[in-house]
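Backbone Fold Data
Goal — fold tokens
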Amino acid sequence: MAVAELVSKCLQARDMAYCPYSRFPVGAAILTSGGTIITGCNVENASYGLTVCAERTAIQRAVAEGHRSFTAIAVTCDIQDSFVGPCGACRQVLMEFGSEWDIYLTKPDGSYKKTSLKELLPLAFSPAHLRADMVVKL
């Protein structure tokens, strides 16, 4: 998989965003370990707390299609002069599926900056913290 394809798919997904309130479209494209690309966009709701980010939309679509292992995600929005990363909630959702993600923060012109989930979410809480032998018995 070329990074260019992942970046292109996240840019296309951004164009599908439903964001009548914030007017802040976001697109994401996830690469599964099997090589499939799954996209997502933000979907807003008049009850703001029910809004779903692009990254979580992509994860939910991927899981619904049977995928559980991922290697990379590209994320974009309309901000042209800086690279913007996933929000904290999305970082935590990505961590649910492993810490070894490459993350491509993408500008509208297709330029990107590669980072990692470990870098964006240091000292993360993860499923490993819930292992039975680590849970304190009361």
